[in-house]
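Cross-posting from the modeling subforum.

Setting up a comparison between two proteins and wanted a second pair of eyes on the formatting. Protein 1 (sequence, then structure tokens):
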Amino acid sequence: MRVCIKTYGCTLNQADSNIMKSMLEENGVVITDRVEDADVAIVNTCTVKSITAQKILYRLGRMQKAGKKTVVAGCMVSANRDLVERYASSASMVDTSNIGRIAEVVEHLQNGKRMTVEGYSKFDKLSLFRADDGIIAKIPINEGCTSNCSFCETKFARGPLNSFSEDRIVDAVTQSVKRGAEEVQLTSQDVGAYGLDSGTDIAALMEKIARIDGDFKVRIGMINPEHLHRCFDNFVDELKGEKFYKFVHIPVQSGSNKVLKDMGRKGTIEEFDSYVKELRKKMPGITIETDLIAGFPTESEDDFKETIDFVRRTRPEVTNISRFGARPHARAAKMKQQSTETINQRSVALSRAVRQVQHEINDKFIGKRFDVIITESNEKSLNGRNGSYRQVVIGRNDAKGIGIGMKVDALVRAASANVLYATVQSVI
């Protein structure tokens, strides 16, 4: 049997897809990249953004009309099963808590029997983890969260906080490095919440990972600012270590304290600014990534101006912008919504401010040299990351003899708002 897995959404979803791939391969299934070549297609869904959900539903509808045997997995099954039923009534379904049964679901569907497996169960997904030969290893450390944000329905999909075993995480990293991983991505809905339910924290986990033999770098996933106080000093000390990218993703979502309160976010802009100031003081050159939402229902023009001011004042190295889109089960969906025109205008204005800041930051790296790990490849370029997890792109003409997994000394020749363009000076 041949199966294709199409994944939408975050690194945690990608990690779930990797687990499903391993489960299927252990049962003799051949994984293919093309839906057209597959006997069964698995669509691992995301429900964070309305635009992504619409793309998924459109794809499911087309697959249904084409008669493709389909399994819908992931967050949408848990949070929006009614929509899945509407667009893909013949599909089998498996939610985020039950991906360990994916081989059973696929086999039943191949034999003409539709199957739905759902219902929250707390178990350690790392018990299903199998390291592969990839350069990048995506390792989930927990799922669920302790937040209650009014714009988000992911909690309906992932359930309450469930932190996985430190020993299993360390073993997953160890086995991945032995199989050739140069970059390890520790992922979850909220890495900062790790251990709240088991008496530990992300800094303690990092300390154990730092002891693992091997030449590799670890990228720490998203940390909500409300959790930084738990282990901030220890976290910074561990992040300084050679095994970790000097990179932190702290989503703020708005520059207005009033809007943050309406969003159900814990903490203030002043607290966020304080953390960023300390991180930059203790680790010069660190990359700070954040997220912002344009057009939240209660966002006034003054609130939006505060968000623009926040970008220009705090100057995050990377900022992800989302247009607000009401999610069906989230509290903000019941609020009076902004017009589409207002949301789009604010998104454009915010994007313009972000690009200007990021361009000014990246232009300062022109003429500088970095050690870069090559992690991706396409027809035009090789892409990698420097020690601060900045994306570095090397054109094919400047990368002869260079391949994925290699480390190079790269000279930055040009920059955009999102990328540093470099040439190879030597192989390390």
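Protein 2 (same layout):
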Amino acid sequence: MSVNHELDEDGEEEKKTKTMPLEGVKVIDLSRAMAGPFCTMMLADLGAQVIKVEPPAGDETRAWGPPFMGKESTYFLSVNRNKKSIVIDLRKEKGVEIVKNLTKKSQVLVENYRPGTTEKLGISYERLRKINPSLIYCSISGFGQSGPSREKPGYDIIALATSGMMSITGEPGRPPVKMGVPVSDICAGMYGAYAITTSLYRQEKDQNTNSTKVPQGTYIDVSMFEGQISWLTHQASAYFATGVNPEPTGSSHPSIAPYQAFRASDGKYFIIAVGNDELWKKFCDSLGISQLKDDERFVSNSSRVKNKLELERELSKVFSSDSSENWISKISIAGVPCSPINRLDEVFTDPQVISRKMVLECEHPTAGKIKQLGIPYHFSDYEFSIRSPPPILGEHTGEILSDLGYSDSDISELRSGQVVS
């Protein structure tokens, strides 16, 4: 079955005017740093109205730099688009009251405080569900809300180390390394968004079954630690089967060979991925190494994995005789997966990246024109976009309070009392 994605101008315009998937869903975002904001950005990109509640000093990532654009750190700008910002001092009773008023009109709340903090602030799930029984409340933390490690701080590198993920990442015999982005934060944020949208779907399904029933709220407990445990996948399965701890293999694969980076004569590395025996034959033919194709050490994937070091030595000799560009050309013509290892300047000029609209631009009130990563899913009936840039601190405080029914004099009083700013 094929889908024709080509649309005329009228079709494109119709896509833009359709209702967004999460339009009408209001989200209170009490999170900061990466995990929570990534979660709420996913919801905002899908059309939810996300109200980012910040302390007087703001989300700490506003100061995580350089680099900065204007007064904003690029770190903050990366995960806070399509949101509105209100500054509330939750140490003050009237500040907590504002969150409770927001709760009455919201479907979702996301927070990533250390476990127990929201109870001390008076905005735990048990307290807020009394105000809104339909509330979907998602807590994202380092190790979860229960268990002996619940109090441990949630940092990406800690989750990577404790989960075992770092033990299988990096080059053999070299010091442990983390990934180039905080994957445990991003993973937890994605699981949070997935659980929230699932809960919203369940509420809608229940409403369709019984329209008089009050939608059921729920508490969602997501942790960076468990996210990385779940990502161990085939490595965990191999350990369960053998009892042997897997070791880091660099760019190579523990169960497929050759599947790794090789260095060419120009000093550049490139990737090959020979995923089955048929590709192995094509690969050998493209390089003119028939003597390796039928070598009993390498004739099947299982034999290649057993003799991986010998195979690597043989192929390294071959690849040292020509440039990476020429090898990639020959291997690609044969239909074998391969790629240069692109740096970001090459990534963002890649025709595929441009074609898929994975770089977008928007105008920021203080940073000027900024580039943002695109939205990595494409619906046939809706074209997603950046509807608003990442907010400046407290940019929408007055607007949000007015929507809640606060009068101008009420807002002035809250400002003068430094409850909001």
